[in-house]
Amino acid sequence: MKRRMLGTGGPQVSALGLGCMGMSEFYGQADEGESIAVIHRALDLGLDFLDTADMYGRGANEDLVGRAIKDRRDEVVLATKFGVKREGDSRSIENSPEYIRAACDASLRRLGVEHIDLYYMHRRNPEVPIEDSVGAMAELVEQGKVRYLGLSEVSAETLRKAASVHPIAALQSEYSLFTRGLEAEILPAARELGTALVAYSPISRGLLTGAMPRSEELPADDFRRHMPRNQGENAEHNARLVAEVTRIAEAAGITAAQLSLAWLLAQSEDIVPIPGTKRLKYLEENAAAADITLTPEQLDELAAAVPADAVRGTRYPNMAEVER
């Protein structure tokens, strides 16, 4: 497996990571046995960059990942997140220094580890100065509980303010052929600051596989049923774009998902996609994308087929919590 750096002076990680969120909720019924097998197989393949968060499964995902890596901790670059607080059916964004300290200790316990390699602020509450939050995160680095710091879904301005307090190794934001909004300001700011871009939903939550069912055919507990890109005329328009991606992939002898991942990897060495899966067959397919090199002609064809603003529909039903 090829390797990439997470930011200037950050850790080396596999060129592709593994998003573990869907192993616990959001994408239909979970199977812990297969999920643990997926994590073990990922490590066998050299995918050592594992991504979780304290809100996934209300802590259950961290517990799952911790059990999976218990005997293989030295093979893993472990990332988790704080900031999305769940109480009953409601959510809030909590970034206070006191909360950050408590959240880190709770994550360490659930993961069963002595330190977190990369600790992200999952979402930002603009009522708390980013300098205060990152200052508290920096204290965790000084205490040896955390090695590197990251942010998720923040604006270029917020990223710059954060980096003035402590180096930010990685910015985790949604980025794919279908999600390009960060190319104008956020990616340039990250590069200016020596911050890597960790791309979540690099296959656009399954849309770019070319095989995702219609929203009404998804399980009731699959949150993609409610995504604007999967609704009505948006879905019909986006399906035509997916068909073009599939056509280009088939001509190259690869899958649409592999083409989408290879496209991201071709954008820059400072981008690390973290496709999520809870199935072994999809893990194997995704991992193989790291060895695919697209030609300039293929990249040009993709650019023509899927312009940056081609996709219809917002990423979430409520966009108020992102890019703050």
TL;DR of this structure?
It is built from ten helices and twelve strands. It has helices spanning 32-45, 60-68, 97-111, 130-142, 156-163, 186-193, 232-252, 256-267, 280-288, 296-305; strands spanning 3-5, 12-14, 18-19, 49-51, 77-82, 84-87, 90-93, 116-121, 146-152, 170-174, 196-200, 271-273. It has an eight-stranded parallel sheet, covered by helices on one side. A two-stranded antiparallel ribbon has the order 1-2. A two-stranded antiparallel sheet has the order 6-7.
Which key phrases capture this entry?
alpha/beta, two-stranded antiparallel ribbon, 12 strands, TIM Barrel, 8-stranded parallel beta sheet
Order of helices and strands: EEEHEHEEEHEHEHEHEHHEHH
- The CATH architecture designation is Alpha-Beta Barrel
Which geometry do the CA atoms define? globular
User: Would you tell me the structural class of the helices and strands?
Assistant: alpha/beta
Domain NADP-dependent oxidoreductase: 16-305
Pfam families: Aldo_ket_red
GO cellular component, one term: cytoplasm
Keywords: Oxidoreductase
Overview of this protein structure:
The chain is α/β, with parallel strands linked by helices and 324 residues long. The chain has a single domain (3-206, 256-293), classed as TIM Barrel (Alpha-Beta Barrel), CATH 3.20.20. It contains ten helices and twelve strands. It has helices at 32-45, 60-68, 97-111, 130-142, 156-163, 186-193, 232-252, 256-267, 280-288, 296-305; strands spanning 3-5, 12-14, 18-19, 49-51, 77-82, 84-87, 90-93, 116-121, 146-152, 170-174, 196-200, 271-273.
